[in-house]
């Protein structure tokens, strides 16, 4: 009796959840695009959308951590480039693949740590600190490579980018696993709870004995490592380390996360929402191409959607309050 | 007498939950009407309807001002009709000047230009009415809590209201400051301003109001002129039964010393070279309840923050059960077995994005987790236990904390520390904004903790509460301890004179 009530509750909760609305929008949008251009529903296109989404999503997961803790990380786009580059450089010097990937990831962690240092120790606002980091990392890439791509890369490495499991690309599997882990961490661990607490009210968190500095620092490191992973995988996919890769990606990522319902005011956000947000932005841009909307209008539409999504969110928040 | 305000058959629901139904009320010009009731009875909600916070259409029934039906679409409409509301959580812009705060929103302008000279002159006028002795140019940040309260009244007066709505104006004030505020409200009556006002301090209500209205179980239970009612009757109407005893003080044999602090000194946060707290030493033993009294700004809160590791000590040592502990951050204090219920629940007590459950367990995640994994069932059970024990009024432990009335939020904040295994509990204003019935619950909980051998430090602005509950009373003034009275010797006069004591050297 109690059990059935509970599960009935769970069912109604699914419909009430914000993610459900997002999911419905995704479905409707896909159908509309599919009607205009049936290619949209081809296996090839669907796999492509998932693959493209995955590169964004991996970074968006880190960004969700950061935004939930009421921070912001603008450096992820440059991080893609510098970490992909570091990995590619070591590969081109003949180091073992595993070692090179690790070096790339550590580079991401290091830049995340620099962000964290600026924010936690020197109290620089996260937007400014990560903006600085964004330029520094991009600058370093250009200094080291003088603007030229790094290639060729070993075949085994490039295979990572093209490899599939039963038709599903490796990167999709990887991002799925990362989402599962991140969802679990945010929902079921004390660490996750602390991140929400800090974003919700940093003063209360402090008085509750939470290590605010350490926890805040950790989310930037997570964001850095995940951006690095996405960057390394991008190098593998392209078969080279490209100095200009990831330019502007931070905005795509933040858009996806915010559309997914994560609040810029901190303390609110889910990985499921982020995943749907990332998928939605990708479906939209692919769809606009397939339907034949010009690239210029695409930018306009993306901007419009950000404003509408955040507007709706703010409106709902105010309604909850009164 | 002319009727200025009429509430006809008003009912209010939040979703499926009815807060109150069929409330009728008519108020004469210049009357002071007190609104009392338990936490969550709907007092703030009623005033919010009058203040336009909940617009017409979100409630049933009608509001009439001076014989005219009003349908407010928002707070602006309500202001235009001559209603000003002073909210439970005061909103002063800390970085603006006093005068700017007063005229915020209605700066006297000519073709879009502000005449600052006129603004400061007018501001002085309103400051005089509320007897607030500060320079209109002063930044609001430098004012005390009670001065903020007076400032928000001055601000309300600046738009020449007919009706003033006060939501717990005195709950953050000491008794002396509160008395001053009440005088000012009385003075407004002479200006033919009608006041509706909510308070949990019943002595004050009986003293001030012309009429006392009690809300309970979603109804207006009683509505009586003050000379026809006693405090006990009000309490009976509020909680539906008589309270046998306000202060369930028990004789507990005091055990060994648990907390001792020696020579705590804290630098002033804004003024260089000055100390806000100087050379504070005291000790508390197991089973003892130590009261800390003093005016707001006397350094009580800063001392407690310093002990808890939330603000930096310049000097001073802290001992737990005779052994020195090194506390530089709150987690050190918690590890040493100290808990702190902070004074300002909105700023540092609640997490507005979280449910009751999450708020309750946030200070003790270890208790509901294993190897860093939250045990959801255990968490639910534990928070449910305290939810029931403190009789928190909400739709359940999964409710968002912002949906709760002020007093119920306070209970959630308190329960946060009750689930923890601690040796010393510091309570800074534990019953602020809590109704009489719930106050007794909280006193019971505190007594219970003391009996279990905890050492309790209780900071409060309500002297009666301290005298009713504490074994010993410290009086703070200007950052120093000015009095230390055992229970038998603590009298109102002694404490007040110690609290207002002027530093000999100054
Ligand atoms: N936005 C909201 N959504 C849902 N329920 C709400 C909301 N605001 C208030 N409530 C509920 O309405 C009831 C009345 O709340 P209200 O704030 O008016 O109480 P109150 O009498 O002012 O209590 P207190 O003395 O504690 O301030 C409470 O049970 C509260 O949980
Ligand atoms: Mg209230």
Describe this structure in words.
- The complex is a heterodimer of chains A (322) and B (506).
- In chain A, 78% of the residues lie in helices and 1% in strands.
- Chain A is mainly α and 322 residues long.
- Chain A has one domain (47-310): Orthogonal Bundle (ABC transporter involved in vitamin B12 uptake, BtuC).
- Chain A has a two-stranded antiparallel ribbon with strand order 1-2.
- The radius of gyration of chain A is 20 Å and the shape is globular.
- The relative contact order of chain A is 0.18.
- The model of chain A is unreliable at 1-6 (pLDDT under 50).
- Chain B has 506 residues and is of the alpha/beta class.
- Chain B has 2 domains: 3-239, P-loop containing nucleotide triphosphate hydrolases (Rossmann fold, 3-Layer(aba) Sandwich), CATH 3.40.50; 257-337 and 422-505, 3-Layer(aba) Sandwich (Rossmann fold), CATH 3.40.50.300.
- In chain B, the strands form 6 sheets. Chain B has a 6-stranded mixed sheet, with helices on both faces. Chain B has a 6-stranded mixed sheet with strand order 18-21-22-15-23-24, with helices on both faces.
- In chain B, strand 21, helix 15 and strand 22 (455-459) form a beta-alpha-beta unit.
- In chain B, helix 4 (116-129) crosses helix 5.
- The longest helix of chain B is centred in the middle third of the chain and has 16 residues, at 175-190.
- The termini of chain B are far apart.
- The model of chain B has no long low-confidence stretch (mean pLDDT 87).
- Chains A and B meet through helix 9 and helix 10 of A and helix 10 and strand 20 of B.
